[in-house]
Amino acid sequence: MLDLGDGLAVAFKVESHNHPSAVEPFQGAATGVGGILRDIVSMGARPVALLDGLRFGEPDWHFSRAVGGIGHYGNCVGVPTVGGETVFDEAYRDNCLVNAMCVGLLPVERLTRAKATGSGLSVLLYGATTGRDGIGGASVLASQELGDESAEKRPSVQIGDPFTGKKLIEASVELVSAGLVESLQDCGAAGIASALSEMAADYGIDVHLDRVPLREEGMEPWEVMISESQERMVAIVRPQMLEAVEAVLDRWELHHAVIGEVTSTGELRATWHGEVVGAIPARLLTDECPRYEVAQRPRLPRPEREIVDAPATAEALLALLASPGVRSREPVYRRYDQLVGSRTVRRPGLDAAVLRLRPSMRGLALSLDGQGRIARLDPFTGGALAVLEAARNVACAGGEPLGLTDCLNFGNPEKPEVGWELAEAIEGMAQACEALGVPIVSGNVSLYNETNGRAIHPTPVVGAVGLVQDVRLVPKGWREGDVVLLAGAGALSLAGSEYQARFGEVSGRPAPLDLEVEARLVSFLWRAAPLCSLVHDASEGGLAVALAESALVSDVGARLELLDEPVELFGEVGGRAVLACRAEVVADLERLAHESGVPLRRAGEVGGDTLLGVELRELRTAHGSES
Amino acid sequence: MTGRPRVAIVVFPGSNDDRDAAWALGALGADVDLVWHAEYELPEGVGAVVLPGGFSYGDYLRVGALASLAPIMGAVRRFADAGGPVLGICNGFQILCEARLLPGVLRPNRQLEFVCRDVVVRVETAQTLFTRRCVEGQELVLPVKHGDGAWYADEGTLMQLAARGQIVFRYTEDVNGSLGNVAGVTNEAGNVMGLMPHPEHAVDPLLGSADGGLILAALVDAAAAHALATA
Ligand SMILES: [Mg+2]
Predict the structure, then answer these.
(1) By CB atoms within 10 Å of each CB, which of A47, A414, B16, B107 scores lowest?
(2) pTM, whole model, 2 decimals?
(3) B13 vs A163: CB contact, 8 Å cut-off?
(4) What kind and span of H or E run contains A186?
(5) What is the pLDDT of residues A279-291, one digit of tens each?
C-alpha cells in the first residue's frame, strides 16, 4: 500500500490463476478475478480497477471463454476493467496464463489506525457457505505439472458467484469504514487454513471446524479446513463489536459464524465437536516454513538466424498490425465494463488507463505488462523489460511511477534450467526497480506451468501504478500540424521481437539494456506528457507499430523521416517513445530532455492520411480498430 | 419549497451504478437519497426516483425479475401511478419492464456478448419530462454497458408506442439487436422512462461525453416540479 497524499492511499496486487484457467477457462478466470478483489478488500480498500494479463496459444474458444469469465465476474461486481494485455504464443497452448491485478483506494488513516490484537478476540467467518468445491485446488492444480488427465481435475476448480462476491465487497468495505473489525483475511488458496495461519503466527488461534456453515453433508474436518469455496472472508472482531458486525452481514444477507478465537499459544489448533483434530505451531506455516535453494543451469539461446525474404516496410507493418499479438484489443475490452465508478478518464487502449481521484484533478495511471519471448532468450533482460515497460506505460500517460506489483509465471523450478530462468528474471527485475527507484510492494508466484514436460516461456508480469498530477493534461492524440519527436537511445535488436517471430525464427540474444538510460527515459516521459498531445512508447512491433497506433488513435497520419532499416523500425528492447506537440512547445521539451539526459530528435510532422507510405484506412483495416 | 430537488436512488443487492448516479445527480443540483431495496416507503419529499444499473440479485432467474418484486417496488409503483418521474437505467430499465411499468422486455444482446462502448442515440421526441432539454432529432453520445439490452415487443406494440411518442431514443446503428434500434421508452403517461445507455456516465466531460447531463438535468427539473405540485 502506498500513500498518495490528500489523505488517500492505494492498495494493489497482481495474482495468477493459471492452472484453474487451463482446466476450465471461464470459471478459472472468473474466480481469479474474485480472489484478487478479496485480497484488496482484506487490506481495507475499495476495489476501483481491474487489469488482466492473458496469455494463450491463439485467439480460440478457450481464450474467449476466459475473457467471458473475467467479464462475468468484474462486470457483475461493479469494478471496471481498465487494462492489461493479451499475448498469443504457441508456448502457452497447453498452459495459458491468467494474471489478474486489482487496485483499491482507502483513506490513509485506515493504514495507521491502531488494531486491537491478542487473545480473546473472535474469529468470524462470513460470506458463502463451505463445500467440497476446490478442495486441494492449490495443491492438485497449482503445484503440479498438467498432463493429459487434467480434465479429471475439473472438480478441483472453484466455482465463482459474483453476486455473493459483490455483497461481500460492500459488506466488508462497510465493516472496515465503520471501524467494526480489527482485520480481514481472504480465504484464498488452502481456504481457512491459510487465512488463519498468518494471524495465528503472532498469537495462536483455536478454530472450531464444526461451527463452519456448510453446504454439503458429511464433510470431514480436514475438508472444511482446506476447502477453497469462494466468496468467504475471515474477520478478527472484538467481542463487544460482534453484534454490530452481525447486523451488517445480516443486512447484506451473508452467512456468518464465529468459528474460533485468538489465543496466546502460538498454535493453529483445530477442533471438531470439542475434540482436537489438528495442531501445528503456526510459524511453521509462515516465516519458518521449509526453504530450499533451487539448482540452476543456464539455458543458452540458439544463435540468431538471419531473416531471409523479409517483406518491404509497408507490407511488414500491415502484417504485424494484423497479427494476433498486435491487433486491436477493442473486441476484448468491449466485453468489460470500463466505466463503473465514474473515474475512467482514459479507457484501455494506449499504454496505460487513467482513473481520476475525484474530487481532485489528480489521477492514477495503471498498466500491466509482461515478457515471455524475450525472457526465453534472456530471462535477465525479460525481467528488467517487464518492469521498464510497465513503468514506461504509466509515464506515457503522465504518471510518475509510484510502485509495482509482480507475478512470476514459470515452469517447474525443480528443473535447473527453470531455476536459472527464475533467478535471472528476478535479478533483472530487481536491478530495473533499483535504477527506477520504484519499489515492488506485492506479488505472487505461479510455478509448474508445464504440460507433458513442456514449460511455458519464463513470464514475469509487472503491474505499475503512477500518479498523474492533472488528468486534464493526459495526452489524447496528435493533431494536424504537431511536431513528431522520438525519445530514447537504448540499443535495439530483432532477437525475440514480434518482427522476428512473424518473419523469421525466434533466436539470438536480445540487445543489452542500459538500465540508467532506461530509467532516465521514464522520468523524462512523465514530466513531458502534460506538454504533449501524444506520448506512446514502442513495444511489440517496435517503432513502426507505435507510430501506426499513434496515427490510428488520433485518426490522422504523419510525414516522417526515418531510417528504413528493419532493426530501426521493428527492433525491440531499447526503450523509445513517440511524442507529439505544438511547434511552440518543442523548445520546452528539448530543454526537459536535455536536463533529463535523454536524447530527443525531431522525426517529422503530423498531417495527411498516410503513415510510412501506407494509407490510414489500410492500417485501420489490418489493425481492426475503430476510428 | 426551498432547497435542492430530492431524487431517490434505489439500491438493490447487486446495484453497481448507484454511486455513479448519485454523483451525477448531485453535480446537477439534486439532493440524493440512497434507498435500500428492503424499504417499504420512499423518503418524504422525494420528487423523482432512479433505478440504477447493475446486476440486481446477480441477474439470477432472469434480469430484473427478482428486483421487480422487492419491497421498495410497491412504493415506486405508487409514486409512478401518482405521476412521479421514474427513470430506470440499464438494469433499472429491465426491472421496470419486469414490473410491467414499461412495455416490452429486454433480451440478451444479439451478439451474445456483453458490450461496453460509446454509442450515438437520436432523440425521437423532445416532448417528454426526460428530453425537455433536448431537441427532436438531436444526437447524443452515451455509453452502453450491458449483456441483455435488446429491447423487444411485438411489431404492433412498437408501432403503437411510436405513434404515441413513447419511443424516446433510438440507436443510430444496430448495437445489440434491439427491435427498431430502440434505446429508451416511456410508459403511456410519459412519467416513467427506461434507458439502456448510461446518462450518469456522460456528465463529467473528462470521462468522455457530457450529453447525459441533458437527460439527468431534465430529471432534476421534473423532480422539483413534481415535489412542488405534490407539496
Ligand atoms: Mg506501451
Answers:
(1) A414
(2) 0.94
(3) yes
(4) strand A183-186
(5) 888 777 777 777 7
